[in-house]
Amino acid sequence: MTIAAAAPVMLCAWLPTAPGAATATAALAGVAALALALWQMLRRLGVPDPDRAAALILLLPSVALNGVIGAHDTLWAAILLLALVAALDRRHDAMLGWAGLAIGLNPQAGLTAPLFVALLINRRVPLLRWPIAPLAAAAALLGTGSVGWTIGLRPLLHEAITGHLLAIDAPNIWTIVQTLPLGYPLLGLAIAIAIGTIATVIAHFAARPIGDHDMIAAALLCTMLAAGLLPLMHERAFFLADILSLALALVRRDRAHWRIALLVQAGSTLALLGHASGIDALTILGGGMTIAATALLAGPLLRPAANDNPVIARSA
Fold this sequence. Notes:
16 helices; mainly alpha
């Protein structure tokens, strides 16, 4: 089922259709691949009735809006889920290959990279195997470039070079900070905070084993922290967090994780609406919600003592 889940993503990239038809085909193929990849993950984690649970992906506002605005986030997100499934199965070559492929399609997939780095360190995966990810990313860049896709590095680099704000309609802390009359540039400080936090999270997860059910929580936290602290993030920066928060709620099936999922969905949707309408207040409100969700998730996951942490200690 791994290849079946990724097949719509691969096929739509080389489909010789007209631009409008290609966009619609890619959107439909991306949603199908995303649902299949989520189904495989939920089935692997023993979620009851994974077919019905995976179908909930169709109800997420960010997934519906992604197709409307012509974005292709569902494509790389589906492949990233396959990387997480491979990580659950300890198939590290496949994990690196899928992760690299996703990053090559869109560098936003790299928001989850801290978890994969931590797993490579914790599981003592030989360094000779690490280059699989960059090689897969390079292959994806060459493949998408050959057919004229623009979902690789170019859009993000353009935003980073031309943008003068800390955040580009992203529902994170920098959207809030940049509204304050501080009067001096904070880009360097934002980068330093993000790098320091990400390095700390890598060290934390690299120092202890992560149970199967906890893998999704750790992936979500890495994604939330990276999207929440890196500068120059855009309004779709929390798309992967939308998917992972739903998956985590379906796995844990408790009120606390459904609350986190609702906060993430609301924050991400408000940012999309704020970007479309030009109402900054919506994006700022969305930023408050994603910050709250990150705090609720980080509390149990980042406790100093692993033996006292039921989230880390439990394995599937």
